């Protein structure tokens, strides 16, 4: 299979920014309440994080609370397994964008990737990428690296790039492991400066976050964002 980038012009990823702007302040727990979501939104506004990442049900509220701020509304698609149909991922994406999402974090079809069905994986990502960009959104593709070999991680990143994604992301945080420095470095080596790399899962401290950034992460997904930015050097 020949990988190629879509003709859409890609912007180089800015790696020189405040630590807070690397952080997607995340609350994806299934039992998250409105009060908890509202608190996370307030924290993101106070610390000027890159985004608030919440489940699709909370997108409309999050968007309303973030209007006029420098914080984006981010949500997840096909989460956390990636095994929903392409049509359902597209519909979920369109609804999230209509509700005010700026960024979509989509789980690719992990089983199809491991089976070597590259065309199906790329087509799945491409359909969501087209929906995201039609709605002026940004797409991050979660590859769930802990379930993949290094060869499969590289293939996943290549497919995401060929399909028109804006970022590749290590993990959902719901599998058996999260981000590692090795995986972030491998993903950055694969996509160069053409795509962003988001490290997520198990990042609890400022030292963790800085190690991921040093390895090549341009975005960090964390529920511990406040602790990360308030820890003294």
TrEMBL record:
The catalytic activity, as recorded, is: 2-deoxy-D-ribose 5-phosphate = D-glyceraldehyde 3-phosphate + acetaldehyde
EC numbers for this chain:
4.1.2.4
Q: Does the keyword Transcription regulation apply?
A: no
Its annotated pathway?
Carbohydrate degradation; 2-deoxy-D-ribose 1-phosphate degradation; D-glyceraldehyde 3-phosphate and acetaldehyde from 2-deoxy-alpha-D-ribose 1-phosphate: step 2/2
Give Gene Ontology CC terms: cytoplasm
Kindly list the places in or outside the cell where this protein is found, as annotated in its UniProt entry. Cytoplasm
Q: Where is the active site?
A: 105 (proton donor/acceptor), 169 (schiff-base intermediate with acetaldehyde), 198 (proton donor/acceptor)
The UniProt keyword set, sorted, is: Cytoplasm, Lyase, Schiff base
Alphabetical list of Pfam families matching this protein: DeoC
Keyword Lyase listed? The answer is yes
The record's listing under InterPro entries reads: Aldolase_TIM, DeoC, DeoC/FbaB/LacD_aldolase, DeoC_typeI
Q: Which GO terms describe its biological process?
A: 2-deoxyribose 1-phosphate catabolic process; carbohydrate catabolic process; deoxyribonucleotide catabolic process
Gene Ontology MF annotations? deoxyribose-phosphate aldolase activity
* Primary subcellular site in the record, as a coarse category: cytoplasm
HAMAP family, per database record: DeoC_type1 (MF_00114)
Q: What does this protein's UniProt record list under function?
A: Catalyzes a reversible aldol reaction between acetaldehyde and D-glyceraldehyde 3-phosphate to generate 2-deoxy-D-ribose 5-phosphate.
Q: Which family does it belong to?
A: Belongs to the DeoC/FbaB aldolase family. DeoC type 1 subfamily.
| Protein name per its UniProtKB record | Deoxyribose-phosphate aldolase
